[in-house]
Design brief:
Two copies of one chain form a homodimer. Chain A is α/β, with parallel strands linked by helices. In chain A, 42% of the residues lie in helices and 17% in strands. Chain A has twelve helices and twelve strands. In chain A, the strands form two sheets. In chain A, strands 2-1-3-4-5-11 form a six-stranded parallel beta sheet, sandwiched between helices. A six-stranded mixed beta sheet of chain A has the order 7-6-8-9-10-12, with helices on both faces. In chain A, helix 9 links the parallel strand 6 and strand 7. Chain A is elongated. At the A-B interface, helix 4, helix 5, strand 2 and helix 6 of A face helix 4, helix 5, strand 2 and helix 6 of B. Strand 2 of chain A pairs antiparallel with strand 2 of chain B, so a sheet runs across the interface. The first copy, chain A, binds a DNA duplex through helix 2 and helix 4.
Chain lengths: 339, 339
DNA sequence: CCTCGAATCGAAAGCGTTTTCGTCAGTGGA
DNA sequence: TCCACTGACGAAAACGCTTTCGATTCGAGG
């Protein structure tokens, strides 16, 4: 490995001067600057990030805790899209992403904070982390800048971000109402995630605003995945009177529900209308193509990145909670009924 | 931040001794060992990875170059699954994953090798990287241990791994033949990826072994994505005589082809049989459920991880090329015909 | 000719570890 | 009593870089 000393020797200057050239300090003459740059290039020199990090106390890397257990299922690609656009933004500022492994050796540091400190990451990005994770309280109390998605974090340097879940849920219900539906069911989330709660809240608010009846037989809970949507639909169909439409807190549950309907000889999108949430890639490929609330994953990743960069740069900037707008994507799974 | 000197002072020993305790050296008495360990715990000490990396010349991190351009489309989750199981294995050995950003600031190091050196990663994992990437030749010539998937790499410390694409393609064709098909088309890959080439090869070999006719009107090319499958199918349907079955180099192209068939009033899986490749999550959800060749993503990730760990540990171990078995998943998109 | 400021450079300390090698006390054997 | 050896520990160098601050030179202004 070539070091700045190698360059210094070849250029007939001190290592200090080389370092100054490499870091754009002004107190270097044009001539030596160019000479050092030339030699740097010739030698294919790469600065050693560890050495630099040791003295600057910055690693130019952002730690990512990404949990995509089975439970997440098809949210999988959803979170990956967010990370991708997040990375595109922070990459432009020179950051790479350090993904912490879920598995660790027995003696290794444990917990968000300890692992972040160990690696010396400059900031943290959290996705798919359950609200009940044990390491969370101590993390948010620390001075490490952190941004999370779909996880409500409260600490001096912890911002969080999610889609407008309440607004999205209202949008879904409003759309159904506009299509003539008055009996509208809901399949929510059994784990008490923040988005799940908000979507349930939006559902209730919309019903209230519209003056529509709330019937507990028409609501059920799942885990965001296909099978649970199927079960939930079956449960709702046990009610004496059926809803004419059901809003699901995730696309995959809506898709599972389609299967349940067909098993009962019902045609999804005609006999019972369905609206999902997320707009996963398959939503437009299933039959009938699923009407859903699209989350803007690109905007989420980019906003999260900008927020974290800002948090890292200004030690005293207070954290924020960021909401990303959603939009209704109308396809074939909602029938117009009545008048 | 607490350092080993803080611990040393509190324990009344030298930093050397603390370091020895932390690294399990034998020449420390039981008494001082326990004392140091206790204080380490009390102070919530975390070793500084940069400082340690500086002297040990190891970072305990593995660099990942992951390219998932639009072209990859639905292979997306496929590659992510591989990374996930890869990470689970290397995580147990204490490694975290450093994902290099696609975007970089203008003055930053460029190319696989330079960026790997800069970060001091202990090894490299490559996914979704095109064979024509400019940095590849210099990378494989370097002494950096690297493992890639679906990319044929040749260098002193470069192993690569892929599914048994040839065998899988043969499997698909054999299955069709067993179901009575003799007129079998193929939709391959236009970009000359290694897997695409191998699947084409397997297709040809199987035809030959079975003594079936090869008709160039029955083969077309796409880019692994849905739309291209649709177009390819249309092109094949322009032949005067139609094949009774088509084998696609990816599930998504097969799914696109379903749309093409329906546009012509044909029923996929009955009028024309389809076999895909990959077994992406949607394959079982489309109608008709897609018969396909399943790639074992878990095995791919785990094998890749073991190979890389081994390569990193033994500087003189020659590289390998690893093939992961595939399996046929028979669903509803292949009709039995003839006798 | 003297002084002063600007421009340019380098010495040295420091970042937090690991690791080599030496020191020293104690122990057992001759 | 002496010697060799073992066990326990620490001094110091090294890893590759950044940054402060002082030194030196040079030209301009007085």
């Amino acid at each position: 490995m070539t070091t700045i000393y190698d360059i210094a020797r070849r250029a007939g200057v001190s290592a200090t001067t080389v370092s100054k050239v490499l870091n754009g300090y002004p107190d270097v003459s044009q001539k030596t600057r160019e000479k050092v740059q030339r030699i740097t290039r010739e030698l294919g020199y790469q600065p050693n990030a560890a050495a630099r990090g040791l003295v600057t106390r910055r690693s130019m890397s952002i730690g990512v805790f990404f949990q995509d257990d089975a439970r997440m299922g098809f949210r999988h690609p959803f979170l990956h899209d967010i990370v991708a656009s997040f990375q595109d933004v922070v990459g432009e500022s020179g950051y790479d992403l350090l993904f912490f492994s879920r598995t660790t050796p027995p003696n290794a540091p444990q917990g968000f904070e300890a692992r972040a400190r160990h690696r010396g990451v400059d900031g943290l990005f959290l996705l798919g982390i359950p609200r009940t994770s044990p390491g969370l309280p101590s993390l948010v109390r620390s001075r490490i800048p952190v941004v999370s998605v779909d996880l409500d974090l409260f600490g001096p340097r912890a911002s969080w971000l999610s889609s407008d879940n309440i607004g999205g849920a209202k949008l879904a219900v409003m759309h159904l109402a506009a299509m003539g539906h008055t009996k509208i069911g809901f399949v929510g989330d059994r784990y008490g995630t923040k988005p799940g709660q908000d979507r349930a809240l939006g559902y209730h608010m919309a019903l209230q605003e519209l003056g529509l009846a709330f019937r507990s037989e028409w609501v059920a809970e799942g885990d965001f995945m296909e099978e649970s949507g199927e079960e939930a639909m079956h449960r709702i169909l046990e009610a004496r009177e059926w809803p004419t439409a059901v809003f699901f807190a995730s696309d995959m549950m809506a898709i599972g529900a389609m299967k349940a309907l067909r098993e009962r000889g019902l045609e999804p999108g005609r006999d019972i209308s369905l609206v999902g949430f997320d707009d996963v890639a398959i939503a437009r490929l299933v039959t009938p193509a699923l009407t859903t609330i699209r989350q803007n994953t690109r905007a989420m990743g980019e906003e999260a990145a900008r927020e974290l960069l800002d948090l890292m740069q200004n030690p005293n900037r207070p954290p924020r909670v960021i909401t990303i707008p959603v939009e209704l994507v109308s396809r074939d799974s909602v029938a117009r009924i009545g008048g």
